[in-house]
Amino acid sequence: MSSVLTDELRQKILAYVPRYPSKQAVTLPALHIVQDALRCVPLEAIREIADLLDLSPAEVHDTMSFYGIFRDKEHPLGKTRLWVCRSLACGLRGGDELLDTVCKKLKVHPGGTSDDGKITVEFAECIGACEGAPAVLIDDEARLNLTPDKVDALLEELRR
Amino acid sequence: MAEFEPVLLRRIAKKASPWLDAYRADGGYRALQKALEEMSPGQVVDAVKASGLRGRGGAGFPTGLKWTFLPKDHPGPIYMCINADESEPCTFNNRILMEEDPHQVLEGIILSCYATRAATAYLYLRYEYGRGYRVLQRAIDELYGHNLLGRNILGKDFHLDIFLHRGAGAYICGEETGLIESLEGKRAWPRIKPPFPAVEGAFRKPTVVNNIETVACVTHIIDRGVEWFKSMGVPPDPKNPRDAGSYGPKLYCISGHVNNPCCVELPMGITLRDLVNEHGGGVWKGRKAKGAIPGGISMGIMTEAEFDTPLDFAGPGKVGCLGLGTAAVTVFDEETSIVDVLHNICRFFSHESCGQCTPCREGTGWMLKIAERLRRGQGRLEDLKILEEVGDKIGIMPGTTICGLADGAGWPVKNAIRKFRPEFERYIRSAEKSSLLELVGGH
Ligand SMILES: Cc1cc2nc3c(=O)[nH]c(=O)nc-3n(C[C@H](O)[C@H](O)[C@H](O)COP(=O)(O)O)c2cc1C
Ligand code: SF4
Ligand code: FES
Predict the structure, then answer these.
(1) pTM (2 decimals)?
(2) Does B328 share its domain with B343?
(3) Ligand 1 center to residue B438 CA distance, Å?
(4) Which of A82, A84, A85, A125 maximizes ligand 3 atoms within 8 Å of its Cβ, making it the mutation to test the pocket?
(5) Do B346 and B322 fall within a single domain?
(6) What confidence tens digit (pLDDT) does each residue in B214-224 have?
């Protein structure tokens, strides 16, 4: 039977096992590894992670669904995930307007992916970059002071 | 007053290299060497206890005392969980420490593990801190390469592993038992306490949870001594036997409507007004402030008239706020609508409630719904009463919820209504609408 997890992904996941006294603790690292590679966590991957970690697929799914960060197969991520912060420090300096602008330019609602599959837009709660509000997160790195005049250049950069 | 010299931000201010050689050349790992050679674990605990250090993660619990709650002579394992979830809105001091001076943090972790006899530390890092993750991993690799982590550290009978564990974008993972559940690979549902983590924590073993800034302070307490730490800050109020004082330096975050948003290190106890004017560059656009949150949004709201309140552990409580929290100050100017501030805050908590306790799950949802209604110009005066009522009833303090998220959700709401009532009433009577209403993704 073919599997969705390559040998390489399996090895990456198993490398976390010795770090913890329980295999279940590898759940989050495993979900991140899979989503980074596949841009989502398909149901088959959940079963395979469960197998690797001696868990029931329901346990893996329960954890996965608690954290808004993971996507199922029906809602895969685009090439880049662009999070626009909307919490207070950003909100006071144009965060809500920034999210609106980005969504309109890409013709998506938060959570959606641009037609070319390049950019998934999300709203974020405070990303801890408030000294540079409004701030965005590009996958997992913050970009600060994203004033309206910088939006076009950013989207251009992410489309490349 | 003598010019205050930053300590936690010392190397960061001069843009020193974050890597091991440079850190050591600046006196780094001297404290660890000293502790391993001259101090027993118990003596490190005693020093931290004597320093009066209180946790920087929000609750302000005395660090040394927390360590003594671990069972004596436990055969192990004992775990150290370092809380780097830093998700309280408007807070970013942990990020700066980890990204720019990782070894200062790691030295504090190693010292704290030595003191508590923990042989494994998990650093729970919010997923959004990708840069911090990569910097810390490289710094940890350096330590393994130099016998500062792993077996027989510096030739002593002391072994320690530090593992980075990335979160997955949920605020509740910052609550210490939510963090532990999440580390264990489960949904981050906070546990009912007791048992406290010191008795039964990660993997059901005794566990200490400490914040990044807290352990960074430990480095300097061991390096510079207890007296140095106690030479700054605010001593306990002699009239209040329960006040443990507010000693040491503190990282303050300043954001919102100020000219110079930044993170600055100061002796504990500066007033919010001085912080904003002397370090935040004053309110932007030549305007006046309307108010501010004093320590993350969970701590409530101060009006401009309350800005002379000192930001120590006891200060914000004197003007009806919940506490010092993360000492992250966000200012909003006189042109900001308090309804928009309220809505922004309610939206956060409704989104981040873990859903385990009905009063929190439903209460944060109602508060958001009402804030939304106000914002649409459809509010009613009774809505203010409902908001206050919900704000008063959800939380550990009234005894209706498992964790403190709900207290933090209620506090800014009741502060907002009680401190800005005339503005709310005016808004409702004139059926004003928010200018943010039509934006995509605003709900
Ligand atoms: C909802 C909630 C969120 C929290 N988030 C954090 C956080 O992000 N970082 C943190 O250090 N402490 C956070 N705390 C406080 C922790 O529960 C705990 O008190 C702290 O990590 C202990 O470390 P300290 O004593 O060194 O401050 C949070 C508490 C609550 C109730
Ligand atoms: S108070 Fe709220 S966040 Fe905390 S455990 Fe209960 S439902 Fe979850
Ligand atoms: S509020 Fe946007 S980064 Fe903190």
Answers:
(1) 0.97
(2) no
(3) 35
(4) A85
(5) no
(6) 999 999 999 99
